[in-house]
Amino acid sequence: MSIEFTKTIIEVISAILILIAFELLNRKHLKGYSFMAIGQLLAAIICVMTSLWFLAFMHAINCLLMVRGYLKWKTNNE
What residues form the membrane-spanning segments (predicted)? Predict the structure, then answer.
């Protein structure tokens, strides 16, 4: 399997996870944060593989913000 095909598959999965996360977050569902974090992490990996360093950094920061939001929401609802 070529590296381009692998990158394309990861990019599509990342986009789908981010879209699902937006829908879950709109419905105020806790799983939206984890879906978004995984999608952002995959997007950051793809950006690193294609040498888009600033975009990779921004995706990584967004991933950390989603983890923070998840932990904050989880502790507030317990």
Answer: 6-25, 37-61
- C-alpha 75/C-alpha 78 separation (Å) is 5
State pLDDT tens for residues 53-75: 999 999 999 999 999 988 988 88
Which residues have a Cβ under 8 Å from the Cβ of 56 and sit 6 or more positions away?
44, 45, 47, 48
Burial of 26 (0-12, 13-18, 19+ CB in 10 A): exposed
Q: What is the DSSP letter of 77?
A: -
- The DSSP 8-state label assigned to residue 30 in this structure reads T
User: Which residues fall within 8 angstroms of residue 30, CB to CB, at 6 or more apart?
Assistant: 70, 73, 74, 77
Structural domains in the chain (count):
1
Q: Which domain holds residue 69?
A: 3-76
